[in-house]
Q: What sequence folds into this?
């Protein structure tokens, strides 16, 4: 596989469920990102990881819990979500360490529906 | 803080006609600017980017964009639109977040192409 992959592509969950989204990048990058894309709203940056350390958390509710075990994998653990959390969740990666604003490469996203 | 405005929510053009999508940004320093395209159910694909140098940048699929500092704009153009260009287009400004990058997106412009 090449580029950035995300699984699952679609997920339906109840408000009391616990699920996880997985992202994997095959580009040798050092930085990874989670974005939320809701209808009629700009893409919202949720979390930024650089060299497996979280460098940004944009006031995301604690029901979203990221994990970056290594530079190729990024997870988003979900628990007790609300219906308004239904959205497309996009993962991205970039080279990192450049000291410069770089190109981010996106995965296809996970479409999440919270019932 | 940086921001991006895409004033046109929805644009319809005929196949073969020229296209211009508007993007205005607000950022205190030299911006790093991007255009991404998103087809339905897909992630974001990079069309082109501006970091420095020539203010007219060429991208994939026959797209180009011109950086105009005096107008704080980075408009996307294509001389002849194809039906396959129907998608949503996002302009973004990039900044640094530690050693990673941070993208701030506009709300997007949905392009419809009529045959």
A:
């Amino acid at each position: 596989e090449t580029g950035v992959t995300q699984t699952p592509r679609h997920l339906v969950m109840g408000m009391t469920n616990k699920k996880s989204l997985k992202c994997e990048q095959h580009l040798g990058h050092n930085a990874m990102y989670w974005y939320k894309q809701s209808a009629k709203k700009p893409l919202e940056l949720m979390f930024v990881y650089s060299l497996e350390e979280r460098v940004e958390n944009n006031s995301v509710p604690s029901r979203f819990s990221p994990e970056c075990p290594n530079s190729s994998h990024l997870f988003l653990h979900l628990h007790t979500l609300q219906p308004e959390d239904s959205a497309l969740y996009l993962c991205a990666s970039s080279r990192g360490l450049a000291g410069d604003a770089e190109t981010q490469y996106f995965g296809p996203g996970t479409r999440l529906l919270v019932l | 803080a940086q921001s991006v405005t895409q004033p046109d929510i929805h644009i319809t053009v005929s196949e073969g006609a020229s296209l211009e999508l508007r993007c205005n940004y607000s950022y205190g320093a030299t911006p790093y600017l991007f255009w991404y395209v998103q087809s339905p159910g897909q992630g974001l694909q990079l069309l082109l980017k501006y970091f420095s140098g020539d203010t007219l940048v060429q991208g994939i699929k026959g797209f180009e964009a011109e950086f105009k500092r005096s107008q704080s704009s980075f408009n996307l153009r294509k001389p002849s639109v194809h039906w396959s260009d129907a998608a949503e287009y996002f302009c973004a400004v990039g900044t640094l977040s530690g050693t990673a990058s941070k993208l701030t997106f506009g709300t997007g412009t949905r392009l419809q192409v009529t045959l």
User: Anything to note?
Assistant: The CA atoms of residues 3 and 110 of chain A lie 16 Å apart. The interface with chain B takes residues 4, 6, 30-31, 33, 40-43, 45, 48-51, 55-56, 90, 92, 94, 96-109, 111 of chain A (CB under 8 Å).
